[in-house]
Write a structure and sequence with these properties.
DNA polymerase, domain 1, 400 residues, single chain, hpI Integrase, Chain A, mainly alpha, 11% strand
Length: 400
């Protein structure tokens, strides 16, 4: 006979969360089927094999455990009733293959992974892409063995001609499908996956992106511009501060605290890769800091995140997105007043730093400023701006 029990596995993911699994035991041998949910160890009740009330989604996850347990138990009973001997490995394979042959079932598992990593914005994006694919095939289920190169090309043509999407956006749709197929192979060991991607098959191609930053002359215009409204100057201060600190991302700008400035240096942790950064405070930043409002209760340089619970990831990301949109709207007005034709957004501060630093700073130093893990990442990013050598080479040929 077989037994089934919900357990919390001991190996945590990169977010220090632990996976919930259903443990199947047969002939004293165990195997595990993961349900796609990760929680903190403190939120697990070992005695009752359930999630504690301390977890905000305990009702949902416990109901999910019961549903999954019921599904698996039915398949275990079917396996036990077969006349041929069924090993625990064979039972697991049968359960998984029957349960996860459908592309959209594996998609749900993938979306739950994103939720557990608190990548809520990405969840919304991926849901929309999967719905577009479902509408394209006109089916609520799709067998993992039915993917082929022809289907991918037809879907690409649909996205291009019917939805008028850019090549870059189409590539992102294909990456979503490829990711889910990889999960079906790696996490569920499904053997009948038809894999249409790779050499000699459908290849995902990324068009070269054009990154345009401001010049020194244009930034000087912004530094000295007059007659801005208070809201426009506030947005411009955020942009200039981002530029002066090597183009730090807008999310990091909004999270900067007054206590991060110590001994004439800025000390902060990057939100994207959690790396610690320590930078000298340029003299130009001191002027900006003097313009920002501060009192005994003020925590952040910019007021958008005052009073926000940083543990509420979904709300935090929504506030950052809203603040960025407001900044960008005001920056467009600033660019119009300054007579700058280029698009002026918070992210352009990073491109502008890259544009100006391209021929002034070694690639190794830029890697340190950007806090890239690999110098290859820095080279690829900076290749958009390092034009002097190319221009000199061209002049040598045509200037005769």
């Amino acid at each position: 006979m077989s037994s089934i029990k919900a357990v919390l596995r001991k190996k945590a993911n990169s977010q220090k969360l632990y996976p919930i699994a259903l443990r199947i035991i047969k002939d004293r041998k165990a195997t595990f089927i993961y349900i796609g949910q990760y929680i903190k160890q403190i939120d697990w009740d070992n005695k009752n094999c359930a999630v504690k009330k301390s977890h905000p989604d305990f009702l949902y996850i416990n109901q999910l455990i019961l549903n999954k347990k019921s599904e698996v138990n039915k398949k275990l009973i079917d396996a036990e009733m077969e006349t041929n001997y069924q090993s625990v490995t064979a039972i697991k394979s049968k359960v998984l293959n029957k349960k996860n042959e459908d592309f959209f079932l594996v998609s749900n598992y993938y979306l739950n992974q994103l939720k557990n990593r608190k990548q809520f914005h990405q969840v919304d994006i991926e849901k929309q892409r999967l719905q577009v694919f479902k509408n394209f095939i006109k089916k609520d289920t799709f067998n993992l063995g039915d993917f082929d190169v022809r289907l991918m090309k037809e879907f690409e043509n649909h996205l291009s001609t019917k939805r008028n999407l850019s090549k870059r956006t189409i590539a992102n749709y294909m990456i979503t499908i490829r990711t889910i197929l990889n999960i079906a192979i790696s996490d569920f060991s499904i053997k009948n996956v038809s894999y249409p991607f790779g050499r000699g098959k459908y290849q995902i191609r990324f068009p070269e992106s054009v990154k345009i930053g401001l010049t020194i002359e244009e930034i000087k215009i912004l530094e000295n511009i007059k007659d801005l409204t208070q809201a426009q100057q506030y947005a411009l201060n955020a942009w200039l501060l981002s530029f002066y600190f090597a183009g730090i991302r807008v999310s990091d700008v909004l999270l900067l605290k007054w206590t991060d400035f110590l001994d004439n240096r800025l000390h902060y942790r990057m939100g994207k890769n959690k790396k610690l950064v320590s930078l000298k405070i340029p003299n130009k930043v001191i002027g900006i800091l003097s313009q920002l409002e501060k009192n005994e209760e003020t925590v952040y340089l910019f007021k958008e995140l005052e009073g926000v619970d940083l543990d509420d990831d979904r709300y935090l990301k929504t506030r950052i997105k809203t603040a960025t949109r407001n900044f960008n709207r005001r920056l467009k007005m600033v660019a119009d007043k300054a007579g700058i034709d280029k698009k002026l957004t918070m992210h352009i501060a990073r491109h502008s730093f890259g544009n100006i630093s391209g021929d002034k700073i070694t690639i190794q130093m830029l890697q340190k400023l950007y806090r890239h893990s690999s110098i290859t990442t820095t080279i690829l990013y900076q290749s958009n701006f390092m034009q002097q050598d190319i221009d000199d080479a061209l002049d040598k040929v045509v200037e005769f």
